[in-house]
Amino acid sequence: xxxxxxxxxxxxxxxxxxxxxxxxxxxxxxxxxxxxxxxxxxxxxxxxxxxxxxxxxxxxxxxxxxxxxxxxxxxxxxxx
Amino acid sequence: xxxxxxxxxxxxxxxxxxxxxxxxxxxxxxxxxxxxxxxxxxxxxxxxxxxxxxxxxxxxxxxxxxxxxxxxxxxxxxxxxxxxxxxxxxxxxxxxxxxxxxxxxxxxxxxxxxxxxxxxxxxxxxxxxxxxxxxxxxxxxxxxxxxxxxxxxxxxxxxxxxxxxxxxxxxxxxxxxxxxxxxxxxxxxxxxxxxxxxxxxxxxxxxxxxxxxxxxxxxxxxxxxxxxxxxxxxxxxxxxxxxxxxxxxxxxxxxxxxxxxxxxxxxxxxxxxxxxxxxxxxxxxxxxxxxxxxxxxxxxxxxxxxxxxxxxxxxxxxxxxxxxxxxxxxxxxxxxxxxxxxxxxxxxxxxxx
Amino acid sequence: xxxxxxxxxxxxxxxxxxxxxxxxxxxxxxxxxxxxxxxxxxxxxxxxxxxxxxxxxxxxxxxxxxxxxxxxxxxxxxxxxxxxxxxxxxxxxxxxxxxxxxxxxxxxxxxxxxxxxxxxxxxxxxxxxxxxxxxxxxxxxxxxxxxxxxxxxxxxxxxxxxxxxxxxxxxxxxxxxxxxxxxxxxxxxxxxxxxxxxxxxxxxxxxxxxxxxxxx
Lengths: 80, 353, 216
Fold this sequence. Notes:
The complex is a heterotrimer. By secondary structure, chain A is mainly α. Chain A has helices at 2-5, 9-20, 30-40, 54-65, 70-78.
């Protein structure tokens, strides 16, 4: 949100928190976010079999946050 | 009176009384205010810095809820390179290094850079870096940038085609020196645009221009013009990180949008970086090694607070060896690093480190 | 014209980076009976000090600083010649050998230090960049230098400063020259660790430290 949408931190946190339906405080609470990341399948720090990783996780994040991520768009261009 | 254990700007340990600590903080802030012609910190902010530096714990952190993104430049070099980049020379690839920063060190963005970390030597190797970034874009989740230094000095003799201004100035060949600086700036800009566009092609999230303006005002001009071009023609996010707290006037007369670049302090640098279209600005304030860490942190926070106040884009301050209040020492003491970091978040109100 | 007006004109000539005017003011001030060291201290040095301060504040830039130091040299030459003509000892500018160490091509900071030192009346032999220990020592011997100044930007190349000091020691020359180190990664701690006589934090500090080393 900062790099591609020039949002200052409070605005960026609020945008993400609203999209994820949590509070901005929750964004840096690892217990909340760990479970949420697994539930939303947007990638976790640990390597959990079957969960989205790398580009797959980013594609889901782009969808959740309603943003475009360049490499996800590149992947779409390559799809038949 | 009890003494507070703290540091000097070279990392050596010292003890100060509470009064001495406050005096250092006030003096550091006033020095920045005087140099930058900006407001000094107010009493509440001074109190906060005193509290930060008086904390009895070796490592401190921000208040819960005040966390900021943690980014890193020259990533791979830190793990893969040698002392040249304060690197540990691990026998891993640069791509491995980036993944370690995501999954082990929990960084929030990352960049890949050529081992020399300057655009000029990176140019002939760009296809190698393209595939490395391409691979990382599919294996990592955090925003993935390509990073390099404009490092315009590489375009002067003995490394480049143009006569070194450092040789021309003592001969009083001012016009010739200035002409060579602009020649170097033009070529530097061409190289940077070429390299950066290759990363737009493969879907990188952005570019980090690191240590910008290290060769002075013409170096800064080359970066601003490059940013302008990239924002017009690519989807890249752009971060401009600086090399020093004021733009060295090697040329002295270079202007960007009618503003003289030489002598600009961080809040003035911000404005031209915004005009060029950059998305994130990384101010730098240099550490004085013969002053206390508290003096240096207060000084850096004063500069950066003004930047944050005036900014319309996110501010990711440089907090590392010899900058942002951190001592000039290859392995900066963690107590001083965390104090400078907390001060930047809680007092300067930065958007990231 | 009173002495104060001469002092002001002298300072202004330096700030205007006007070499010819600086020499002219020096000649007229001497003809009016002002002692050479008076016009230097109260006029020209005040001007160059102000230029150094403005440089540090980002209000004056490197080309002007270099031109101002050239104007300063012209004024100092006139004053020095006048002392010699009057039968006194012509003031000999103390020689300093300065360069960026071998393996390091970063010379912007070193160039600024050279300008500051010249402005302060030193005869600086700028060896440039990527200078070997042997070259530092040979030049210092050749010009009978008082000080050897070593600049290094990088943590890797600053070790070369140590090598130069070791080479001086090996050749029995340690102590013959005062030594000062500077550059991005250097610190007072580093200077102490390798046995350098001083550390220059920046250009202004380097002048102060060298003045102190030479008892100025």
